[in-house]
Design brief:
Elements: H1 2-6, H2 15-28, H3 38-49, H4 55-65, H5 74-80, H6 83-92, H7 108-115
Helix pairs in contact: 4-7, 5-6
Protein backbone atom coordinates (compact mmCIF):
# COMPACT_ATOMS: atom_id res chain seq x y z
CA UNK A 1 0.00 0.00 0.00
CA UNK A 2 2.79 2.45 0.87
CA UNK A 3 4.42 1.73 -2.48
CA UNK A 4 1.22 2.55 -4.37
CA UNK A 5 0.67 5.70 -2.34
CA UNK A 6 4.20 6.83 -3.11
CA UNK A 7 3.29 6.62 -6.82
CA UNK A 8 0.27 8.85 -6.30
CA UNK A 9 -2.39 6.16 -6.39
CA UNK A 10 -5.45 6.70 -4.21
CA UNK A 11 -6.46 3.17 -3.34
CA UNK A 12 -9.29 4.35 -1.10
CA UNK A 13 -12.88 3.21 -1.10
CA UNK A 14 -14.02 5.73 -3.69
CA UNK A 15 -14.36 5.97 -7.46
CA UNK A 16 -10.73 7.02 -7.99
CA UNK A 17 -9.53 4.19 -5.73
CA UNK A 18 -11.51 1.67 -7.79
CA UNK A 19 -10.11 3.07 -11.04
CA UNK A 20 -6.53 2.97 -9.78
CA UNK A 21 -6.95 -0.51 -8.32
CA UNK A 22 -8.44 -1.92 -11.55
CA UNK A 23 -5.62 -0.35 -13.59
CA UNK A 24 -2.99 -1.91 -11.34
CA UNK A 25 -4.71 -5.32 -11.42
CA UNK A 26 -4.91 -5.26 -15.20
CA UNK A 27 -1.13 -4.90 -15.30
CA UNK A 28 -0.03 -7.23 -12.50
CA UNK A 29 -2.73 -9.91 -12.98
CA UNK A 30 -3.59 -9.75 -16.71
CA UNK A 31 -5.18 -13.23 -16.68
CA UNK A 32 -7.42 -12.39 -13.69
CA UNK A 33 -6.14 -15.33 -11.66
CA UNK A 34 -6.63 -13.50 -8.37
CA UNK A 35 -2.93 -13.83 -7.58
CA UNK A 36 -0.12 -11.37 -8.12
CA UNK A 37 3.39 -12.73 -8.31
CA UNK A 38 5.91 -10.47 -6.64
CA UNK A 39 8.02 -10.31 -9.79
CA UNK A 40 5.00 -8.91 -11.69
CA UNK A 41 4.42 -6.39 -8.91
CA UNK A 42 8.09 -5.43 -8.90
CA UNK A 43 8.05 -4.98 -12.68
CA UNK A 44 4.96 -2.79 -12.33
CA UNK A 45 6.54 -0.69 -9.58
CA UNK A 46 9.74 -0.31 -11.60
CA UNK A 47 7.85 0.81 -14.71
CA UNK A 48 5.55 3.13 -12.78
CA UNK A 49 8.33 4.69 -10.77
CA UNK A 50 10.80 5.23 -13.58
CA UNK A 51 9.97 8.90 -13.86
CA UNK A 52 8.63 9.67 -10.40
CA UNK A 53 9.99 7.35 -7.74
CA UNK A 54 13.50 7.24 -6.40
CA UNK A 55 15.45 4.87 -4.22
CA UNK A 56 15.06 7.44 -1.46
CA UNK A 57 11.27 7.22 -1.67
CA UNK A 58 11.40 3.42 -1.46
CA UNK A 59 13.80 3.71 1.47
CA UNK A 60 11.32 6.06 3.15
CA UNK A 61 8.57 3.46 2.68
CA UNK A 62 10.72 0.74 4.26
CA UNK A 63 11.70 3.18 7.04
CA UNK A 64 8.00 3.57 7.88
CA UNK A 65 7.56 -0.21 7.98
CA UNK A 66 10.68 -0.48 10.16
CA UNK A 67 9.48 2.12 12.65
CA UNK A 68 12.28 4.60 11.77
CA UNK A 69 15.05 2.07 12.38
CA UNK A 70 17.91 1.95 9.82
CA UNK A 71 17.22 -1.77 9.38
CA UNK A 72 14.17 -4.00 9.13
CA UNK A 73 13.54 -7.41 10.64
CA UNK A 74 12.12 -10.39 8.76
CA UNK A 75 9.13 -10.49 11.13
CA UNK A 76 8.31 -6.86 10.30
CA UNK A 77 8.39 -7.62 6.57
CA UNK A 78 6.19 -10.70 7.08
CA UNK A 79 3.72 -8.68 9.15
CA UNK A 80 3.50 -5.75 6.72
CA UNK A 81 3.81 -7.36 3.26
CA UNK A 82 2.06 -10.22 1.48
CA UNK A 83 3.97 -13.49 2.02
CA UNK A 84 5.59 -13.67 -1.44
CA UNK A 85 6.75 -10.05 -1.26
CA UNK A 86 8.10 -10.47 2.25
CA UNK A 87 10.05 -13.59 1.30
CA UNK A 88 11.38 -11.91 -1.86
CA UNK A 89 12.77 -9.06 0.24
CA UNK A 90 14.09 -11.33 2.99
CA UNK A 91 15.96 -13.48 0.45
CA UNK A 92 17.49 -10.47 -1.32
CA UNK A 93 18.19 -7.94 1.43
CA UNK A 94 21.74 -8.12 2.74
CA UNK A 95 22.36 -8.25 6.48
CA UNK A 96 22.45 -4.86 8.19
CA UNK A 97 25.93 -4.21 9.59
CA UNK A 98 25.47 -0.67 10.91
CA UNK A 99 25.34 0.62 14.46
CA UNK A 100 23.02 -1.16 16.90
CA UNK A 101 22.51 -4.10 14.54
CA UNK A 102 20.47 -6.92 16.01
CA UNK A 103 20.52 -10.57 14.87
CA UNK A 104 18.61 -10.99 11.63
CA UNK A 105 18.50 -7.27 10.83
CA UNK A 106 18.25 -6.55 7.09
CA UNK A 107 19.65 -3.61 5.14
CA UNK A 108 16.67 -2.10 3.30
CA UNK A 109 18.72 0.92 2.21
CA UNK A 110 21.23 -0.95 0.04
CA UNK A 111 18.42 -3.21 -1.23
CA UNK A 112 16.39 -0.17 -2.33
CA UNK A 113 19.27 1.57 -4.06
CA UNK A 114 20.14 -1.69 -5.86
CA UNK A 115 16.54 -1.92 -7.17
CA UNK A 116 17.03 1.42 -8.88
CA UNK A 117 20.44 0.60 -10.29
CA UNK A 118 22.19 3.04 -8.01
CA UNK A 119 24.48 0.37 -6.59
CA UNK A 120 25.18 -3.33 -6.98
CA UNK A 121 23.49 -5.82 -4.67
Amino acid sequence: MHCCLSLGYSIGKDRQGDIDFQRILAVVDPNSTGYVHFDAFLDFMTRESTDTDTAEQVIDSFRILAGDKPYILPDELRRELPPDQAEYCIQRMPPYKGPNAVPGALDYMSFSTALYGESDL
